């Protein structure tokens, strides 16, 4: 693998309002330093992609943003959301996750009906009025572009859905809680091209109402759907800029090599 100067970086300052930001973020797995000095501002109501080779730290960084790394890694530095450092030990992480939802790489619907996949968490959150539950159910399934496909089979097991439908159900389940930010860790990596296209279309529509941060190995996907892109290498954020600039006018040699296929 080519050697790059990891101290040389290009991090743009976004003009939009910030949805979330990190300051001097460090992540350690035991003695292994996995993320170095991450300083990023994520814009509101935009899609930000995190790209990089396997092991670059993309998923590690993403999982920090709603405290999913708490039991597996040591996370230092600040993660600011609405002027609050949510990396503080005093923060209620369950409240954080209501505002910052997560969709994982492989669809993980509950072994329940389609309806119960949506309403289960809502009931746990204290929403019990039937009309409210039905409204959230329909709104979230429409938001995930799934309503027309399942509206007549809401009592059917979610496990009977196709992989792409299951992943959109997981997106619906997240947005039913009406979070502010949606994190997605390679949500289409296990899906066929048609399902992938539906997921991408869904995310573009959702970005009007949600701030979205997505990890993807698929450079074409990042270029198609994201507004901003951060390129990571060996735990360092090498470059962060508008997606157009990352793919057409990268400032760092490592970024140019990666997006042009000359990396490694």
TrEMBL record:
One Gene Ontology CC term in the entry: membrane
Where does the ABC transporter domain lie?
20-259
Alphabetical list of InterPro entries matching this protein: AAA+_ATPase, ABC_transporter-like_ATP-bd, ABC_transporter-like_CS, P-loop_NTPase, PstB-like
Instruction: Tell me a Gene Ontology molecular-function term this record carries.
Output: phosphate transmembrane transporter activity
Cited PROSITE patterns: ABC_TRANSPORTER_1, ABC_TRANSPORTER_2
GO BP terms in the entry: phosphate ion transmembrane transport
Q: Does the keyword Cell membrane apply?
A: yes
Please give the Pfam families that the UniProt record associates with this protein: ABC_tran
- Which UniProt keywords are listed? ATP-binding, Cell membrane, Membrane, Nucleotide-binding, Phosphate transport, Translocase, Transport
Q: Which NCBIfam families match?
A: 3a0107s01c2 (TIGR00972)
Q: What is this protein called?
A: Phosphate ABC transporter ATPase
Gene of origin? pstB1
């Amino acid at each position: 693998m080519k050697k790059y100067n990891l101290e040389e970086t290009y991090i743009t300052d976004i003009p939009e309002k910030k949805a979330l930001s990190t300051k001097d973020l460090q992540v350690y797995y035991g003695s292994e330093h996995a993320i170095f000095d991450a300083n990023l501002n994520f814009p509101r109501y935009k899609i930000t992609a995190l790209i990089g080779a396997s092991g670059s730290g993309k998923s590690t960084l993403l999982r920090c943003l709603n405290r999913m790394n708490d039991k597996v890694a040591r996370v230092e530095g600040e993660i600011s959301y609405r002027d609050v450092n949510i990396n503080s030990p005093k923060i209620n992480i369950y409240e954080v996750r209501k505002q910052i939802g997560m969709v994982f790489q492989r669809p993980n619907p509950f072994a329940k009906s389609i309806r119960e996949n949506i309403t289960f968490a809502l009931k746990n959150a204290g929403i019990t009025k039937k009309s409210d539950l039905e409204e959230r159910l329909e709104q979230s399934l429409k938001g995930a572009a799934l309503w027309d496909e399942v509206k007549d089979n809401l009592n059917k097991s979610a496990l009977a859905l196709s992989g792409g439908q299951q992943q959109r159900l997981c997106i619906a389940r997240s947005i039913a809680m009406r979070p502010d930010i949606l994190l997605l860790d390679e949500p289409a990596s296990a899906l066929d091209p048609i399902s992938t296209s539906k997921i991408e279309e869904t995310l573009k529509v959702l970005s009007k109402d949600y701030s979205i941060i997505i990890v993807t190995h698929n450079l074409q996907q990042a270029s198609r759907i994201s507004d901003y892109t951060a390129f990571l290498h060996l735990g360092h954020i090498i470059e962060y800029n508008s997606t157009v600039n990352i793919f057409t006018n990268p400032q760092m040699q490592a970024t140019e090599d990666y997006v042009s296929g000359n990396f490694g």
